[in-house]
Amino acid sequence: MKRKNQKLAFVFLFLVIISVIFILLYPGCDQSYSSQLKGEERASLTSAPYVPPPILRNHPSRIIVDLETKEVKKRLADGVEYVFWTFGGNVPGKFIRVKEGDIVEFNLHNNPTSKMPHNIDLHAVTGPGGGATSSFTAPGHTSTFSFKALNSGLYVYHCATAPVGMHIANGMYGLILVEPKEGLPPVDREYYVMQSEFYTQGRYGESGLQPFAQQKAEDENPAYVVFNGSVGALTGDNAIQAKTGETIRLYIGNGGPNLVSSFHVIGEIFDKVFTEGGTRSNHNVQTTLIPAGGSAIVEFKVEVPGTFILVDHSIFRAFNKGAIGMLKVSGNEDLAIYSGKQKDQVYFGSDDEDEDQDLFSGPLNLKSLPEIDNTQHINNEYGLDPIELGKSIYTTTCFACHQLNGEGMPGVFPPLAKSDFLNKNKEVAISAIINGLTGEVTVNGKTYNGIMPPQNLNNKQVAAVLTYVYNQWGNSGKKVSEDEVAEIREKKVISMK
Known about the structure:
This protein is α/β, with parallel strands linked by helices and 497 residues long. It has 2 domains: 40-330, Immunoglobulin-like (Sandwich); 384-491, Cytochrome c-like domain (Cytochrome Bc1 Complex, Chain D, domain 2). It has helices spanning 2-25, 164-169, 214-218, 316-321, 386-402, 420-423, 426-435, 459-470, 482-491, and strands at residues 40-42, 62-77, 80-87, 96-99, 103-110, 121-122, 142-148, 153-158, 173-179, 189-198, 208-209, 224-227, 240-243, 247-256, 261-266, 270-274, 281-285, 287-290, 294-301, 306-312, 324-330, 437-443, 446-452. Strands 1, 2, 3, 5, 7 and 11 form a 6-stranded mixed beta sheet that branches. Strands 12-10-14-19-16-17 form a 6-stranded mixed beta sheet. α5 (386-402) packs across α8 (459-470) and α8 crosses α9 (482-491). The longest helix is centred in the first third of the chain and has 24 residues, at 2-25. Residues 25-30 and 357-382 have low confidence and may be disordered.
């Protein structure tokens, strides 16, 4: 009998230990969830890309949220400023985290310096206007309303004061997460990413304080499509971080106001996607659609180190309008998963091609190239002198074809080093960058027939990269000014002779 009791005690102890481990590993997943409202908390709000910590309690509480609307002038891109209308002083607005069943007391404060009244429509609210009808707030005032978080999920919130489109287009949106009662499975890192577009009077990269362009917004033709409120907000020193072996959860929103996002991380596959921010998940997804005013939760494990690029895969938005971010993963290589480049050999075409086709007019001299940070010119370019700015643009935009040494690729891409074509006429060089170049050209006595597409660079960038090229590799040492570029841009058509 004593032996039997010892066995029962051992089994009981084992079950207790397993239960404790389960609760520790899956915080909030205790099945003894109580629906009784207990306690009061003031919500911890965070600015993108950061997220408040998971909620560990196993009961609903009264949650107090204080959110301020504020109109601020801030950076939209290097050299470009914009007057943003914000929730919390930044775009996107603060990330709010509550739990299913919570009673949320929401205090919306409109800063006295605001010129406009504002309100808030939270897609997580069941009630007229999502709270908008109860939160219309004049400058220097506070509005308060309450709601019960009935449905778990990731929800957009935005201003809904007329004209609604203008308030959203100026930056008034953010995300609120309603965790399920049982909580979310733990991950190593969580981040907040929100896409949106901006409609400015000036074109992409045009410097100065840019006003809102109503007609462009109506035509759904933005100058900027960005992550987290500005060009470069998630690149360089602002990149989100992880280590190999970690699991990442991204809370992604699309503030719009118009475009649908095709969200993709280059070099990763989403292990799990909670589509449209709901509770149904899909697996092994390459790109996920996020509607304007919608969201998604994506999870994936990072197995190898490197820089992984976040994009809207409507790809011109990424490389020409700003919808690009970076996830920098550190750790040990795993060559069984990804080898990196193993060979770089000359290719003369397949055997069934025209034997008379001359692909190369001379031997190709491939040199070992240093690793290039493909986004190094995004940040702080206006703090660089023209040569340094030009170098950073050249090594991210031009080097793939014309090579780091300016020698080009024989028979394919003409040299920029000691280039008679380049040195004899600055106008031709400027036009080639801003308008593109198609057809035969003769450089240093050899004929090239290819296509150079127009480059999406502003006047300052064009002047800088040409000044850099002119002062390298035995070229003439000329300087190119922004005024010269602007003049050629106005002419549009330049003779290549």
